[in-house]
Amino acid sequence: MNIENTKAQMRKGVLEFCILSVLRESEAYTSEILDTLKSAKLLVVEGTVYPLLTRLKNDGLLTYRWEESTSGPPRKYYGLTEIGKTFLNELNGTWTELSDAVNIITTQKTKS
């Protein structure tokens, strides 16, 4: 079994939740989202994030707007829609339950 593949699958499973969480307080463009994820040690590449942002937008969870940049081409800023905020709140509850359950299981002493 390949441990790196398993680790990648675990990260991929929470990436959507993390991206929505990054956008909880304010809009951000893709580079800012990537920087936030990387600073939290969640290793992702642009090729993974762009399609996910498009899917989240198509699902009605995100909106975007273009803004001119003084240092290059215009930037696409993403933000949460009202549906996205509701969805994120639901995910937060599920994450807490899942995290608590995993912590209980992984810290249990084995029965002899």
Walk me through what this model shows.
By secondary structure, the chain is α+β, with helices and mostly antiparallel strands. Helix content is 62%, strand content 17%. It is built from four helices and three strands. A three-stranded antiparallel β-sheet has the order 1-3-2. Strand 2 and strand 3 form a beta hairpin. The two termini are 27 Å apart.
* Annotation, overall tally of beta strands: 3
Cα-atom radius of gyration: 17 Å
Poorly predicted regions are none
Question: What's the shape?
Answer: globular
Strand content: 15-25%
Number of helices: 4
Structural class: alpha+beta
Helix content: 55-70%
Q: What is the N-to-C order of secondary-structure elements (H for helix, E for strand)?
A: HEHHEEH
As laid out across the biggest beta sheet, the strand order is: 1-3-2
Distance linking N and C termini? 27 Å
Task: Give average pLDDT, whole number.
Answer: 91
Largest sheet: 3 strands, antiparallel
Domain Transcription regulator PadR N-terminal: 19-89
InterPro entries: ArsR-like_HTH, Metal_resp_DNA-bind_regulator, Tscrpt_reg_PadR_N, WH-like_DNA-bd_sf, WH_DNA-bd_sf
GO biological process, one term: regulation of DNA-templated transcription
Protein name: PadR family transcriptional regulator
